[in-house]
Design goal:
By secondary structure, the protein is of the alpha+beta class. The protein has one domain. It is built from two helices and two strands, in the order βαβα. The chain has a two-stranded parallel sheet. α1 packs across α2.
Length: 61
Amino acid sequence: MYWGLHGSGGVRHAYTDDELRARHPMLLDAEPSTPAYVLFNDMPRVGDAKRFARLVAARSS
């Protein structure tokens, strides 16, 4: 599964932690047994991707 996140408020939108937390269950509900690839296609993408990875890891442990 591939998800492209383009910024909910436009390309300069930085996702909040709450917005990122809300996306994790959506990924699991869509295809729970399939690996998911998430592309952050917004300007602050590196920071958003790193925070998303940390939030997902924290929920999985």
